[in-house]
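Hey, weird one. I pasted the Terminase sequence into the form twice and got a warning about non-standard characters only the second time. First submission, copied straight from the form history:
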Amino acid sequence: MPTGIVSTGWPAVRDTCTKMGVTFDRWQDGLGRGILAKRKDGLYAAGIGGIIISICRQVGKTYTIGAIIFALCIIFPRLTVIWTAHHSRTSDETFESLQSFARRKKVKPYIRRIRRANGQQQIIFANGSRILFGARENGFGRGFAGVDVVVMDEFQILTNKALEDMIPATNAAPNPLIIGMGTPPRPVDPGEAFRTRRNEALEIKRRNAAGDPVECEMLYLEVGADPDADLDDWGQVEKANPSHPHRVPRQSILRVRKNLADDDSYRREGLGIWDDDRDTARAIPEARWAEGETFAAPDTAPAYGISFSADGMRMALGAAKTDGARMFLEQLDADEGAIDDGMVKLADWFAAKDENGVPRWRRSRGIFISGSAHAPTFKQLLRRRKVLEKWITVLNTPQVMAACQTLDNELKAKTILHPEEGQERLDASIAVATKMPRSKDGGWTWGALTPDGDETPTEAISFALWGARISKLTGRMPGSGRGGGIL
Ligand SMILES: Nc1ncnc2c1ncn2[C@@H]1O[C@H](COP(=O)(O)OP(=O)(O)OP(=O)(O)O)[C@@H](O)[C@H]1O
Ligand SMILES: [Mg+2]
């Protein structure tokens, strides 16, 4: 959502729609409220960054946005709207469907006339407002001036350059609205404008989640099924399509599926799934990760791994324990958050004593840390809490690369176990883990495939694993007979 919202133009538009006989479902009502949200100065809050909608086929895009545009045209005399699609076929279809809407008994009185001439499809309202339709593949959309609202359908087929060519059309408008909507781009589509805007939105979302909110001038809506959805699961269709089944019946969905070339196309167009989020690009296949799931953890001394993200916004704590042969890895921290607070709390956690007065770090096989400037800072916090030097390892770059490689190797060798439940952050991190090249000789470290992905949990368990493999510490107190490590 854009920031700085104090009001919305929605109630007036909704009431006008009611008069036209249009009622909205809840998601449509929320979307309309967001699109027309305003800041203190009375301008649309998403007026600068635009409204970007990623949604599958047959949800009600044309219906929803069409009704909103009609209402705006009725409320604001002399409003000019251009509605473009990439393909002329889509543009013609939209014109047809809005034209029949314009002929409805309750809508007709507001309409002066409809022009159908090819290349000049227009709906002209009695108050001088008008909607012009055309296809971008025919050059429509460029060179306009004095436009108040631009709607771009098939937003997945639009380069940044083409987008830049269209925006000046609204330069003179007192309160412009720009709406881009489409399905996730195919690999062959010039989807860069869509992808750029989506990544921007995800970055803002990530910053907000990390407690570092930023100014936002766009509205981004994405609806879709889970990236790994079973294509025959109707529950996933319901997740992707808020109009199914009550507005859009099974047959419509099946028709979409039948008309598409393959499963990947259906994933994008039928279920709204972005290729970017899918398994094909992940370094650790889901099946390989799932193989190591277990409910039993060995009762041996852990090695700990801690990773800080380069920007210092995220951190993760992992532990590795061995049953002699295999290595049991888990993510221990539950909460992300402000690093200062997190670091101090974490250092205290290591210093905390058990019932025998033995601090936690002493029962471990070492603490293995990496992550720019934060690793030495954390080491200092530990040292101030009397953690012995030989328990603390700050990994250098070759060691970080070795640790990441170790996790990859051991997963392939099936020597890794991890908890089946309660590891949402780690599981999510593994799902987007990718190998980021770091050196000319093939060295790499873990990164995330998606802009809001978090590599730190995967790194943390890699450091713990590597530490457990090299540590000579046992974590066993002399004579206590407790917490014994096997190695
Ligand atoms: N609030 C609503 N009231 C009545 N009908 C609705 C509503 N929302 C959606 N629909 C119906 O849902 C169906 C799909 O809507 P629409 O054609 O706008 O979808 P779309 O997302 O533009 O599809 P496509 O991707 O095929 O262009 C239509 O039959 C439309 O009338
Ligand atoms: Mg449509």
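That's the output from the first submission. The warning seems to come from a hidden character in my clipboard, not from the data itself. Confidence is low (pLDDT under 50) at residues 481-487.
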